[in-house]
């Protein structure tokens, strides 16, 4: 395919600068986003075994619910009944709410003891997966703008630049796409190798990246989009429903049974499984039952589930995030559900989650390698000392990428030990992450990108190894109070940590080779390290 050289240069420049501008923010979003594919597993792994209360036998949830509603007034505002093993049968917020990211939420958990009496305990919500999701949505940028984190809007702008980089990159790569798509030319130097790797990952996962870019823009600026659409729709609801109902005051004794709510849900959405029922505003004129349902065969609006909303007294379906033969989701509702499902990968079961996990890490690599390519090209143009801007970008790239990885790994490594203290564990998570992230940033600029890349990778490896090592300590010294995995899912988190350690070890080996044997005018050359070459065996 023949494209004029001046057009190619224009699109290449556009691709380079949009990528450089947004790349490091998007690295954090993609790296953390890949981990959110297993947020349920992370929560299970991070929560002490005795945190959840014992699940009750099938059929006893109604008995427990009636006890709680009659004796705990706060539960009337909102209470969740869970049918999943490993979860407390009933819970409700004592402080805070389920919406948003809050570090001081407290939740009551309740169950029935052997004598049929209600046992209730108040506990802080463990938000480790929410911290990871917060980084995914905001890149860790602190502050709020309106009712959302400021970082969400910043990441939305970065996603727009990211979309431009995708399109422009595809255009200038078209002439050589067929010839060089699967080529990884190591013998032509590091710049060509990084460029080939960057192109391979970008083109192979292009549909995924387009989906993520567009959906992030929509999520970040959805209020503006909805505001614009409201000018078209006026008072008519965009997402279906909206019919006026007669105002009625309900009595708790008339509440439908949980089994009736489940049956009404499955009749409306056959093929799904009911995971939980959340009841709210039970003593008002607008009571609601939010039924969490799961299916691996359809697009789901949430990361792991869909919802059906109904009146818990009349069993009338008000709305849902699914399309049903018994009700219409509405055109815009179906579009929004598609955006959510495509972004979260909430379809295809475990295989779909693993594919999104791999492509999420591939996206993080895409932004990291893009910065390296830019730096390598600048180094190639300069035969003597490198410019300050090259050193600055190299330090920033290593600081942000390793800072994010080290911060998350350190938080996971500290998790079990943090549960031993009498403090709000979610605030402790934030302290650990931001302390490590900022320390990494400062160290990268203090030691330089070349030298600190070795130090940082070694620290990341150590923290990843510490995650399963903590479980080994728990097995040897059970009296300490920390715990070891009690399920395959929990064990999978620790095996994943070892996988990251192995990948980092390979990266460390490559970095050592570059720093020890690199060109003296390169930003990746470190004189202090190079003096040690005589004392160390060469690394193959």
Automatic annotation (TrEMBL):
<keyword id="KW-0472">Membrane</keyword>
<keyword id="KW-0812">Transmembrane</keyword>
<protein>
    <recommendedName>
        <fullName>Peptidase</fullName>
    </recommendedName>
</protein>
<feature type="transmembrane region" description="Helical">
    <location>
        <begin position="488"/>
        <end position="508"/>
    </location>
</feature>
<dbReference type="InterPro" id="IPR005625">
    <property type="entry name" value="PepSY-ass_TM"/>
</dbReference>
<feature type="transmembrane region" description="Helical">
    <location>
        <begin position="354"/>
        <end position="375"/>
    </location>
</feature>
<dbReference type="Pfam" id="PF03929">
    <property type="entry name" value="PepSY_TM"/>
</dbReference>
<feature type="transmembrane region" description="Helical">
    <location>
        <begin position="20"/>
        <end position="42"/>
    </location>
</feature>
<keyword id="KW-1133">Transmembrane helix</keyword>
<feature type="transmembrane region" description="Helical">
    <location>
        <begin position="396"/>
        <end position="415"/>
    </location>
</feature>
<feature type="transmembrane region" description="Helical">
    <location>
        <begin position="459"/>
        <end position="482"/>
    </location>
</feature>
<feature type="transmembrane region" description="Helical">
    <location>
        <begin position="199"/>
        <end position="221"/>
    </location>
</feature>
<feature type="transmembrane region" description="Helical">
    <location>
        <begin position="427"/>
        <end position="447"/>
    </location>
</feature>
<feature type="transmembrane region" description="Helical">
    <location>
        <begin position="152"/>
        <end position="178"/>
    </location>
</feature>
């Amino acid at each position: 395919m023949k494209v004029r050289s001046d057009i190619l240069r224009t699109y290449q420049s556009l691709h380079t600068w949009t990528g450089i501008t947004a790349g490091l923010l998007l690295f954090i979003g993609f790296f953390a986003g890949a981990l959110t594919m297993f947020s349920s597993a992370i929560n299970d792994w991070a929560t002490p075994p005795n945190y959840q209360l014992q699940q009750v036998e099938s059929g006893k949830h109604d008995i427990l619910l009636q006890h709680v509603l009659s004796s705990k007034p706060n539960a009337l505002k909102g209470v969740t009944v869970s049918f999943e093993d490993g979860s407390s049968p009933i819970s409700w917020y004592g402080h805070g709410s389920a919406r948003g990211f809050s570090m001081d939420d407290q939740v009551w958990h309740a169950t029935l003891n052997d004598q049929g009496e209600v046992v209730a305990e108040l506990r802080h919500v463990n938000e480790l997966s929410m911290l990871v999701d917060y980084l995914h949505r905001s890149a860790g940028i602190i502050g709020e703008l309106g009712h959302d984190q400021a970082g969400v809007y910043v990441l939305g702008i970065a996603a727009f630049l990211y979309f431009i980089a995708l399109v422009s990159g595809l255009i200038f790569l078209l002439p050589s796409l067929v010839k060089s798509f699967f080529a990884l030319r190591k013998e032509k130097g590091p710049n060509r190798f990084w460029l080939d790797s960057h192109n391979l990952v970008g083109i192979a996962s292009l549909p995924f990246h387009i989906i993520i870019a567009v959906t992030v823009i929509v999520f970040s600026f959805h209020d503006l989009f909805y505001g614009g659409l409201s000018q078209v729709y006026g008072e008519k609801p965009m997402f279906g429903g909206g019919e006026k109902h007669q105002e009625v005051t309900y009595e708790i004794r008339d509440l439908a049974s949980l089994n009736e709510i489940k049956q009404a849900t499955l009749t409306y959405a056959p093929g799904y499984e009911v995971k939980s029922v959340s009841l709210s505003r039970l003593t008002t004129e607008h009571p609601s039952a939010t039924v969490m349902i799961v299916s691996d065969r359809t697009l789901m609006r949430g990361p792991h589930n869909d919802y059906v909303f109904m009146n818990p007294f009349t069993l009338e379906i008000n709305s849902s995030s699914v399309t049903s033969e018994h009700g219409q989701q509405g055109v815009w509702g179906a579009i929004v559900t598609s955006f959510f499902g495509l972004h979260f990968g909430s379809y295809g079961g475990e295989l779909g989650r693993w594919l999104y996990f791999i492509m999420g890490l591939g996206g993080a690599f895409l932004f990291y390698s893009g910065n390296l390519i830019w730096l390598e090209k600048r180094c190639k143009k300069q035969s003597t000392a490198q410019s300050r801007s090259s050193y600055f970008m190299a330090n920033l790239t290593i600081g942000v990428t390793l800072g994010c990885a080290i911060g998350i790994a350190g938080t996971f490594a500290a998790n079990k030990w943090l549960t031993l203290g009498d403090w709000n564990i979610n605030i402790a998570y934030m302290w650990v992450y931001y302390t490590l992230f900022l320390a990494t940033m400062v160290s990268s600029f203090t030691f330089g990108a070349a030298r600190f890349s070795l130090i940082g990778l070694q620290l990341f490896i150590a923290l990843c190894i510490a995650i399963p090592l903590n479980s080994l300590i728990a097995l040897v010294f059970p009296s300490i109070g920390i715990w070891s995995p009690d399920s395959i899912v929990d064990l999978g988190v620790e095996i994943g940590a070892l996988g990251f350690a192995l990948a980092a070890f390979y990266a460390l080996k490559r970095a050592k080779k570059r720093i020890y044997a690199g060109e003296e005018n390169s930003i990746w050359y470190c004189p202090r390290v190079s003096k040690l070459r005589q004392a160390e065996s060469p690394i193959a």
